[in-house]
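Structure (tokenized):
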């Protein structure tokens, strides 16, 4: 019997998607364990046995000083070295929405500090709607075997991925653009990018919330017969990689 990998779900004051992503991980076959920032500070070794590391979405520290900034500082100070070791050991890491912003602030994505940024949406307003995502990376362990687009919601005000032309060209050449918006770009991200991975492919950051469409009934038009395009497949890829 394949074992159930342990997924450490990291939370801070203001994150609010930890229960959603825990449900998604359970549906994908993982055992989620939630760690508050206080847990990570008092016992940073708690993530050492985790097979998967997840940074939940929400509004950590009320987005004070910028989305994900304080969460990034706290994580770097408490478990930065342990996260680096986990990535080196090829344990899959995913940051969703505020978690993506946090990974970028830490310099983990795309792999060096200040290489990319997540700015205010081109519209200038917070945007909450359903979007469609195309998996576009064979390097990323979370997307490489996906053959169907994903439909899921976004809920962010600072999701516009920006980068210098040279950086963007490198990300494309190195197959680090993991997910792209199709049928409309909701925030003005360069190249319609919805998510990117690091050079190893084990770390994924994305703005949309695939954890909010892992069972058909979560789609707002489920009762009208709209099914499929679940985000569950993405989590299964991460879980399968962790146990193989």
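Design, position by position:
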């Amino acid at each position: 019997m394949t074992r159930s990998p342990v997924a450490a779900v990291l939370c801070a004051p203001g994150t609010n998607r930890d229960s959603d992503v825990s449900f998604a991980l359970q549906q994908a076959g993982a055992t989620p364990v939630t760690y508050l920032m206080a847990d990570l500070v008092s016992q940073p070794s708690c993530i050492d046995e985790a097979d998967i590391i997840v940074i939940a979405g929400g509004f950590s520290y009320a987005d004070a000083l910028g989305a994900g900034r304080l969460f990034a500082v706290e994580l770097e100070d408490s478990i930065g070295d342990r996260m680096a070791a986990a990535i080196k050991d090829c344990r899959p890491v995913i940051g969703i929405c505020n978690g993506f912003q946090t990974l970028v602030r830490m310099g983990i994505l795309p792999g060096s500090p200040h290489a990319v940024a997540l700015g205010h949406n081109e519209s200038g307003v917070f945007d909450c709607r359903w979007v469609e995502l195309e998996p576009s990376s064979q390097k990323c362990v979370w997307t490489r075997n996906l053959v169907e687009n994903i439909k899921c919601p976004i809920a962010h005000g600072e999701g516009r991925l920006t980068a210098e032309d040279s950086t963007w060209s490198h990300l494309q050449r190195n197959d680090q653009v993991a997910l792209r918006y199709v049928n409309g770009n909701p925030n003005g991200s360069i190249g319609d990018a919805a998510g990117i991975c690091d050079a190893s492919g084990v770390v994924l950051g994305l703005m949309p919330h695939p954890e909010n469409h892992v069972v058909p009934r979560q789609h707002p038009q489920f009762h009208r017969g709209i099914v499929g395009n679940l985000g569950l497949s993405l989590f299964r890829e991460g879980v399968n990689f962790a146990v193989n």
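Reviewer-requested clarification: The first helix runs from residue 18 to 28. The two ends are 12 Å apart (CA to CA).
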